[in-house]
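P.,

For your records, the input lines for the assembly:
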Amino acid sequence: MADVFEKIENEETVKMYYRNCIGYCKGILGDRCRVYQDEERPDIIRVETLIDVASEVHYTFPLVVKQAPVTVAALAANLGFVGRALFQAVLDEPINLNDFAVLESDERLKDLTVDDLDDLADIVTLRLIKYFKEKVNPNVISDIDNYNNEYASLVDAAYQKQHLNKSASRIKK
Amino acid sequence: MIVKRYTYPAVLYFDGETYMLAMHDLRLVTSGTSVEEVYEDMLVYMEGYFQCALAVDEIIEKPSDFATVAKSKSKNVVLLVSVKVVDDKTVL
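Structure tokens returned:
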């Protein structure tokens, strides 16, 4: 089962994926998206999306920010989770919850690699941008990097909290 | 408004250093350095998953039978994880 536990050891790489997740939300949903830190658990970043403007239905999905090393499977599932949630938030027609699932079976889980994270991130981003350009706003902002930088500090803060929690835990032991 | 309870089996993996909890029915996975950590994180993701699914009237995948999962994963520990979610749409 070694592959299941393939880890991303580099902290900057792990943080980049969190930033990307948030970047997709803000870059594509714009004003229909709000990002904030959970008050009770500061290691969680919550992304609130406005699903239905008319009835003001909001949906909030969580990103549990983990320190490196993080298993590829967990990060991939996280990205897939965000992708599914975003699509549910912006599409008029019902979609299959599992369109963005990366864990089709145990076999898929075993085969996951870091490359899958990049592929999944690209698919989520490109499909969302395409949808918004066609149906919502042809001038949708697609420069995700700007948002990555804007929300880097939020990820850093959540990350810092994880460090503090782990240090406190070690002291208790 | 009613409170709904969802219970799903989850498979615990451990490589001697990292724990990973995979809920295959919902395609949710968490990883961490303790069972408590991956369990708590799984609760967060499950809550988010069901809130979203209820909000958009998504068809929610039914849980696999625990005994079947436990049998197929006999080398792993299999847990049942439950969350309660408020369903604002359903009115009694």
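Two observations worth noting. Chain B touches chain A at residues 13, 15, 17-18, 20, 22, 24, 27-32, 41, 44-45, 47-49, 51-53, 55-61 (CB under 8 Å). Residues 35-55 of chain B form the longest helix (21 residues).

Regards
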